[in-house]
Amino acid sequence: MSDDLTTPTRAHTMAWPLGLAGVALVIIGSFLSWSFDGGILGDLSINFYPGSLQILAIIMAVLGLVLLLVEKGPLKKPLGQWLDATLGLRALGLTLTLYMVLVLIAISVESDGLINVNPGGYISTVGAILLLVSSRMLPLRQLRDLSQARLPGWAEILAIALMMAAVLFGAAYALGLTDAWAFVLCLVFITAVIAVLFRTGVMRWFGHVAQRHKKVLTLAAFAVAFFFPFTQNGSDANMSIATQVLIFAATAMGLNIVVGLAGLLDLGYVAFLGSGAYVAAMLSTSAFATIDWHPPFLVVMLLGAGTAATLGLIIGSPTLRVSGDYLAIVTLGFGEIFRLTMFNLDGTNGPLLTNGPNGIPGIPELEIGSFNFGDSHVVAGIELGRFANYYFLLLLLLAFVILVFARLNDSRIGRGWVAIREDEKAAEAMGVNVFGLKILAFVVGAFLAGLAGTIKAHQDVAVSPDQFIFLESAFLLAAIVLGGMGTIAGVLLGATILKLLPEKLRFFSEYRLLLFGLLLVLMMRFRPEGLVASRRRQLEFHEEDEELAVAIESELVEEAK
Amino acid sequence: MTVTDTTATPAPVFGAPVLEASGVTMRFGGLLAVNDVNLTVHEGEIVGLIGPNGAGKTTFFNCLTGLYKPTAGQVRFAGTPLPPKPRAVVQAGMARTFQNIRLFANMTALENVMVGRYCRTSSGAFTSVLRGPKFRREEAATRTRAQELLDFVGLGRSTEHLARNMPYGDQRRLEIARALATEPKLILLDEPTAGMNPQETRQASDLIFKIRDSGLSVVVIEHDMRFIFNLCDRVLCLVRGETLIEGTPGEVQSDPRVIEAYIGTGEDEDEDEAAQVRDTTVAEEEGKS
Ligand SMILES: Nc1ncnc2c1ncn2[C@@H]1O[C@H](COP(=O)(O)OP(=O)(O)OP(=O)(O)O)[C@@H](O)[C@H]1O
Ligand SMILES: [Mg+2]
Tell me, what's the pLDDT at A276? Predict the structure, then answer.
């Protein structure tokens, strides 16, 4: 990189106008027709009336323009020394080009062949390529440390609010897309924006702001989650996916205590979710329920969670005394044994509890007090249906799990877990109750999964053994690894990605496992600490990186002040 | 070679025995790493443990602290037998440092010491999640105590530094602070000055005196003879797992067998130490108290 930092050459002086030309071409092209066929991708065929995909291209081009102006122009003075516009432009150039190429492919796939692409599409593509080329020619610069950038407090909180609003809007928009290609393109757009935010350093600044206004950020995040159902206008399709995401996220967050905090590898975690679900199903008023006792749901929740926790204790006690690898194998086995047991408690092979492979269908809607979760309600003129009801309950559950996670992490117990991960022998020699803390993580994790399971049973209407296969445990683990072990934001992100993408990209379903496998391998190679990295994991995964350690240390010293 | 030395009776200034290890033996397959070693440590006493490389000093520490389960022998602490379990040992009041530093590398200095407080605090999962006043009080007390201990060992200004970034000498002192956080009556130091320069070594000496003066007993393993003879009230020399001699620094120093033991191993480093044993003058020895 150092050769880029030399004095301006001819390429450098040419780069800027070239980039400007690229931006102009993208915008002009987007106002022209992209596609001959008006029936695809939300109509891109009318001149001077851009469709939504064209608007996304325009937004990206405007972003490019802003970055160019930071590079050299009126925005250079206030922002030039903070933002790395060049790296941002490189990321944008690449993603915008990818976006346009995918647009061309999408048009030729959805209607017949490249012949259907109109000149506007080509103009925008050429513009994107110009921007890409110009960004490669721009020189890199030395910048000031963004962590020292300070805005007034209200402005920082405004930034948080804007960010959250963008997330809410983006999520609602992306979920509203029914066309798979349009969804993929939207993902590329989101990737482009995020990549620019990361590469310019805005994200790092945002990280510091978030650190300073932790409470505001948490509140804002929950507000966004809370208002999401109101943006769906009674549509069940997305709300159903959203509840799936929430239950997956809550379960993953519970597993995060076991894996992320205590550092234990649990490959059969879904069995604990299953035991909660089965307890709720057997005690429900379903015609297929096997136990003729129907306590109030709060009791059911405690019973389900308690059952899961007891199982956790039984599995954990003998295995947690030996080293980690055994635990992985034993939990893997336990997951299978659980599934097979549920399969066989059908009245012929064992006592009649689970109806075997048929499971327990027809579980009625939840009823807490006089509130029936099947009923729709109209709040502020917006209809909130059955899924919205479960959504709010699950949001509460998720908040509870996050609370448990965060508070345990920041306590004597959390410190003990870190010490165990760092050096188990030394921790033991310093009087840390290694075995007890491992059991605790295992049992708390199981308890929370059991809790989630009791709600899941009602929300899914039926439980059967095939809901609790090993693959589900693997996905939960993948969500944690992908998002960032031991973090809250990361695991929420990972869970959302892993649950949302397959729902939206059904045409990928055959390649789903292949893609996730590939994704995980790439993650492990390039960013083992996950998308959102906790400081601690970053340090753990980069034992050799002195610079990183020094940088993190200076942040710690800064925060302590 | 069995213990023949009967001059081990301690000076009457020391209090009751804290640690009484008798007949401690550790066998690794065919190797007798520690063979029938006895050691009594009294309140307020600093005992040195010396011996050439591979003599079994660290192994003996591991037997005392429950990291190894001794093949034979008994360890009594403050009058009661001690089970060979690290946690029970710490709980009873015996803490240690490691020859090859074993800090929690990715934690800050303060967090390292706070982990040491684990066994003296009691907030459980419920308390931690509910965050009642008791939790807050205990957490604040842990933090304050950890900071005090960092000040005590002279790391008061490195609170937020990551253990892995700290200089070698500071890491050794941090290990001592972490051990002290467990509120021990007896602290075992395994080569606390290894890798230190002379100035740091002097500071370490002062620190150990300070620890003793605060009411603890100390057992220290060291290869630096000047350091040991200057510091200790009593010295035990191990050779090939057996006690060669136990006595005051003066007695051990003037015993020809000790020099012989070091020279006998034929290693350069050990010969240096043998030379040190010879050179350490009685004057130095007297100047200490
Ligand atoms: N876990 C073990 N398994 C097998 N042999 C061991 C083990 N630990 C120590 N030993 C052996 O026991 C002997 C004594 O080792 P120990 O580490 O106690 O020596 P030491 O006196 O501390 O030496 P140094 O001054 O080099 O630290 C050595 O021969 C060593 O190889
Ligand atoms: Mg040793």
Answer: 94
C-alpha to C-alpha distance for A257 and A272, rounded to whole angstroms: 14
Q: Write out the two tokens for B193.
A: 């000055």
Q: For A131-135, A142-146, A467-471, A540-544, which range has the lowest pLDDT when averaged over its residues?
A: A142-146
The rounded Å distance from CA B91 to ligand 1 centre is 26
Cα distance between residue A375 and residue A365, in whole Å: 9
Q: Which atom of ligand 1 is nearest to the CA of B29?
A: 4
User: How far does the centroid of ligand 1 lie from the alpha carbon of residue B19, in Å?
Assistant: 22
Residue with tokens 């010293």: A557
A72 DSSP 8-state letter: S
* Choice among A260-269, A354-363, A459-468, A491-500 with the minimum mean pLDDT: A354-363
The reply to whether residue A432 touches residue B129, judged by beta carbons under 8 angstroms, is no
Quickly state the pLDDT bin for B279 (edges 50, 70, 90): low
Mean pLDDT in chain B?
Answer: 86
Specify the amino acid at residue A170: G
The CATH fold of domain B1-93+187-289: Rossmann fold (3.40.50)
Nearest chain B CA: its distance from A428 CA (Å): 6
The whole-number pLDDT of residue B286 equals 43
With an 8 Å Cβ cutoff, are B95 and A430 in contact?
yes
Which residue is listed with tokens 């729902």? A503
* Tokens describing residue A76: 């250079």
A431 and B182 in contact by Cβ < 8 A? Answer: yes
Burial zone of B212 (CB within 10 Å; 0-12 exposed, 13-18 middle, 19+ buried): middle
Distance set, CA B163 to CA B104, B175, B195 (Å): 7, 10, 17
Chain B residue numbers with beta carbons less than 8 Å from the beta carbon of A552 are 162
- In chain B, domain spans: 1-93+187-289, 103-183
Chain A environment of B106 (Cβ under 8 Å) = 418, 422, 536, 539-540
- Rounded Cα–Cα distance for residues A99 and B254 (Å): 84
As a whole number of angstroms, the distance between CA B197 and CA A159 comes to: 52
- Both structure tokens of B198: 């002379």
Show Cβ contacts of residue B249 under 8 Å, excluding neighbours closer than 6 positions.
B48, B228, B229, B230, B232, B234, B235, B285
Cβ pairs bridging A and B (under 8 Å): 121
Among the partner residues B67, B160, B162, nearest to A429 by beta-carbon distance:
B67
State how far the Cα of A143 lies from the Cα of A15, in Å rounded to an integer. 20
Whether the CB of B54 sits within 6 Å of ligand 1: yes
CA-closest candidate to residue A378, choices A236, A234, A238, A223: A234
Task: State mean pLDDT over A452-458.
Answer: 93
User: Which of B65, B118, B142 lies closest to A416 in CB terms?
Assistant: B118
Task: Search chain B and give the residue with CA nearest A420.
Answer: B104
B99 lines ligand 1 (CB under 6 A): yes
Atom 28 of ligand 1, residue of closest alpha carbon: B54
Torsion, Cα A339 A340 A346 A350, to 10 degrees, reads -130
Surface-to-core class of residue B202, CB atoms within 10 Å of its CB (0-12 exposed, 13-18 middle, 19+ buried): middle
B43 vs A321, higher pLDDT: B43
Ligand 1 in reach of B51 Cβ (< 6 A): yes
* B107/A419 CB distance under 8 A: yes
- Please report, to the nearest 10 degrees, the dihedral formed by the alpha carbons of residues A124, A125, A131, A134 taken in order: -130
What number of helices (H) and strands (E) belong to chain A? 22, 4
